[in-house]
Structures are given as structure tokens and as C-alpha cells.
Specification:
By secondary structure, the chain is an alpha/beta fold. It has 21 helices and 17 strands. About 45% of the residues lie in helices and about 20% in strands.
Length: about 475
């Protein structure tokens, strides 16, 4: 009879040593120097009050895709807490994805953290658990912590947004507060580059779905950075670190796309054919902004429709893509959603998989559209749709439609173009003119390369506005 070797549990002293390594402020009173040099994202000021709030007994679930800065955001919150005089031995950070914590519950980890600091008190703690999705039944563990330690604050993060959101809603009702951290918006990108001074608020009569807009005295310079943002600008590390700036495509592909497709999604959902998923995502990335159907995708890929539908769910859960739904020319949704558009959550994912695009490339217009849609993807206030129809000989499409949430009637229409030609030929915007007239919309926005003007065509006020300024204005409005 052959006895199976018995795995010895990891020694407690090694776990405590790791905890001390992850929490240098227990000794020094400050966070790691390299993290300290990184600029704070705009979302820091929105996240901090949630992390500090103790009167309401809730854990905070920080969600977002890989490499958008969730760990750094947590560290910046810790830095602020230390500055405010919170005891350094009552702040704990643990990366749950570290193998040394394998199969350990959150409560046991919290107990060991108190032992590591010598502070056995169960009051006044701020505990940060990073990459929580790797702990089975994390939502149950977290709920127990919130209920058992009412005088402590628990903040967790994870990269599988939709999966976390689902479990958070199902198990954390009244106990969890969700916070989404998106890839860099163009607004944040400009701020981190130190270029906010080239933009100023301006008045535009078209309100659409924004409260205020921006103008610039140097649209050529802004467009240069907009093109850079589309190709490389979705991730903070590319801006902050020289090595990643030298080869951002390799960094994004190996550290973001490959890890999600080859490790995260297979481990979370038990995907068998990883290469099939990888190929499917590459196809979607190449055609970002195009209308697709499961039928056509199934025929072209040879993968059955039900499996493709699951892949779409998984990729959306990992915040790599966003499915945008279609309405007809009367703003009605289709009973069977056979067609929809799929956008990358950040346009720079495409250049990482293929090659950076030049602004004169045929596909660049789709990436401009992807960039604009990606600014809206983390807004709780506005869900963009697109219109496409065919009524006999009349067929057409409008890129972005906003509906009144109560009446479900269209209130805004936007055409996203990377061209100036419609400024001189507004009558060529036939689909936009038809849709707005049919739905009693009196004004619309059409993006351009660098032109700003207003014209009236067939009773419709059309505001032409550079795509880069529109993308910047969206990000600024969402934050403020």
C-alpha cells in the first residue's frame, strides 16, 4: 500500500513574516517609497470617504480590470490614513492572491494580522484585502467579518468586475458598497500628464448628457495626446514608469490581456479551450465598434453560439469588453437581441494586440468611437445605446443615443466622426436627420477632428465639436 505524501501546512512564522513585508508602515510608519512617488488618480478623492466611513457598517468592494491602479489606490488611502494620525498598527494590507495565504479564511488572516502587530484589539482597524476573487466564497467570509467586527472597516478589491458585482449584490445586501475603478479616462490622462492648463470650460447650448464642456486654444496639441491616449493611454503604469513607456504594447499584452485570458478567466469559470477564448477576444478587439451577431461570429469562428454567449459574459466580467445594445428608429428595443456592438473598455488594448494606429488609418475612426464609449462605461448616470434600422428602403444608424429613463424616449443623439467633412455638408448626415425628426429631437452633436461650429439643417441644430474635447468633457463631468 502506497501512502500519499501529506502536505504540511505553511508555518505560521512564515505567514507573519510575509504580513510584515506587506505592511512596512508597521515598522517605518510610511508606505513603500516607490508607491509614494506615484500620483493619485482623480478617483482617489471619491474613494477615500467610502474607505474611511465607519459609522455605517459596510465593507467596500473596489472593482476594476487589471492594472488600472486598484492596489495603488488602496496604498494611497493607507498613506492618507497614516498622515491623519490613524495608528499604523491598526492598518493592514494583504494580497489574498499570494499562495502563502492559500485556503485561509479572512477572519483567520485578520487574527494573524493582530498577532503580527501585537495589537490584539478588535476595534478601530482598517483592513485591506487585495484580489479577493481568488478566495472561494469570499462574499460569505466578508459578510461574517462585517457582522462580527462592527468597529472595524474592511476594504477589498478584485479584477473580475461582473463576477464580484453579482456576488456582492447576492450576498452583501446592506453590507457591501461597490466602487468601480475604470481604466484611465482621457480627462485623467491629461491631468496626469500635467496638461490641464491647455483646456478651459466653455458654454455650448447643446446640453445632451453633459453639464459642461471644454475648449482649448491648441486643438492640435490636444489631438496629439488624444491619439497617444487611444494607442497607449489606458493604464497609469505606462505614464509613470519609463520601462513600460518604452514598450507599452508588450506590457499591456503580457500583464493584462494574457493574464486575464490565460489565468483569471480559466480559474474563475473553468474554461477548457483557452486558445479559443484568446482567438475570440482578438477578433472582437480588432473589430471594436462594429456591429456583430452571435450567428455571424459562430459561423466565422466555428464555435457554437451558446459558448460564444458565455465567452462574452466572461470577457465583460473581466472588464475587457462592453456590449452596447441596439434600438430601432422609434427608439424601441428588439425583443430578441440578435445584433449589438462590442467595444473594448479601453482602446489601447487594440494596439497592444496588433499595432498602434495612425490617425489616417481606416480603423482609426472606430477607435475614436471606442474611446468615446469607454469614457461612459463607468457612469451610473448614462447608459449609451445605438440606433440601427431598416424600414423598406430606409435604413440608417446613429452612433450614440440617450434615453429618458422614465419615459424611455430618446433625448440625445451623437454621431462620432473623425472627420471635418460634415461641417460643410450637414445634409449628408441623413440617418441623424431622419432619427431626430422622427423622435422630436431638436439638436444633436457630431464630433470632428478639430472643428467647432453650429449649423442648422432641416430644422435640426447640429453642434460640431472635436472628438478629443468631447472625450475629455465626459470624463470631467463623471468625476465632478
Amino acid at each position: 500500500m502506497t501512502l500519499k505524501p501529506r502536505l504540511e501546512p505553511i508555518r505560521e512564522d512564515l505567514i507573519l513574516e510575509r504580513m510584515n513585508f506587506e505592511n512596512p508602515w508597521w515598522i517605518t510608519g510610511s508606505i513603500d517609497e516607490e508607491l509614494n512617488r506615484l500620483q493619485r488618480r482623480t478617483y482617489f478623492k471619491l474613494f477615500l470617504p467610502l474607505a474611511e466611513e465607519k459609522e455605517v457598517r459596510r465593507a467596500v468592494v473596489l472593482m476594476g480590470p487589471r492594472r488600472v491602479g486598484k492596489t495603488v489606490l488602496m496604498q494611497h488611502v493607507i498613506e492618507k490614513m497614516l498622515e491623519q494620525g490613524i495608528s499604523r498598527r491598526q492598518i493592514c494590507y494583504l494580497g489574498v492572491d499570494n499562495p502563502i495565504y492559500l485556503n485561509m479564511g479572512l477572519e483567520n488572516l485578520f487574527k494573524l494580522a493582530r498577532k503580527a502587530t501585537g495589537n490584539e484589539s478588535t476595534k478601530g482597524w482598517y483592513v485591506f484585502f487585495d484580489e479577493i476573487q481568488y478566495l472561494k466564497n469570499w462574499e460569505v467570509h466578508l459578510k461574517v467579518l462585517v457582522d462580527s467586527y462592527p468597529h472595524c472597516k474592511f476594504i477589498v478589491s478584485g479584477s473580475a468586475s461582473a463576477a464580484l458585482k453579482l456576488k456582492s449584490v447576492e450576498s452583501g445586501a446592506g453590507r457591501f458598497t461597490d466602487f468601480f475603478l475604470p481604466p484611465l479616462t482621457f480627462h485623467e490622462y491629461i491631468q496626469l500628464k500635467g496638461l490641464s492648463h491647455i483646456l478651459q470650460r466653455i458654454e455650448i447650448a447643446w446640453k445632451g448628457n453633459l453639464n459642461f464642456y471644454f475648449g482649448t486654444g491648441n486643438i492640435k496639441e490636444l489631438n496629439k495626446y488624444f491619439i497617444d491616449y487611444i494607442n497607449f493611454g489606458g493604464y497609469p503604469e505606462i505614464i509613470f514608469r519609463q520601462k513600460t513607456r518604452e514598450d507599452p504594447g508588450r506590457y499591456i499584452k503580457s500583464d493584462i490581456v494574457d493574464k486575464v485570458l490565460l489565468r483569471d478567466l480559466p480559474s474563475l469559470y473553468g474554461i477548457q479551450d483557452i486558445q479559443e477564448l484568446n482567438s475570440f477576444f482578438s477578433t472582437l478587439a480588432y473589430y471594436s465598434g462594429n456591429e456583430v451577431s452571435l450567428e455571424a461570429l459562430s459561423q466565422s469562428s466555428g464555435v457554437e453560439k451558446n459558448l460564444l454567449k458565455k465567452y462574452l459574459t466572461y470577457l465583460e466580467a473581466a472588464f475587457l469588453i462592453k456590449v452596447v445594445h441596439r434600438i430601432d428608429d422609434s427608439a424601441k428595443k428588439f425583443k430578441r437581441a440578435a445584433f449589438y456592438k462590442i467595444y473594448l473598455t479601453n482602446p489601447s488594448l487594440r494596439s497592444a494586440l496588433f499595432t498602434p494606429l495612425d490617425p489616417v488609418d481606416e480603423s482609426f475612426g472606430n477607435m475614436v468611437e471606442t474611446a468615446v464609449f469607454s469614457q461612459w462605461m463607468h457612469s451610473a448616470q448614462f447608459t449609451p445605446l445605438y440606433a440601427r434600422w431598416r424600414n423598406g428602403r430606409i435604413r440608417g444608424e446613429v452612433d450614440m443615443i440617450g434615453l429618458d429613463k422614465r419615459k424611455l424616449s430618446p433625448v440625445s443623439a451623437v454621431e462620432i466622426k473623425w472627420s471635418n467633412r460634415y461641417c460643410g455638408r450637414p445634409k449628408d448626415l441623413k440617418s441623424l436627420l431622419y432619427f431626430c425628426k422622427k423622435n422630436n429631437i431638436g439638436s444633436a452633436l457630431v464630433t470632428t477632428i478639430d472643428k467647432t461650429e453650429k449649423v442648422n439643417q432641416d430644422g435640426l441644430d447640429i453642434y460640431f465639436y472635436p472628438a478629443s474635447l468631447y472625450a475629455y468633457s465626459i470624463g470631467a463631468n463623471i468625476v465632478e
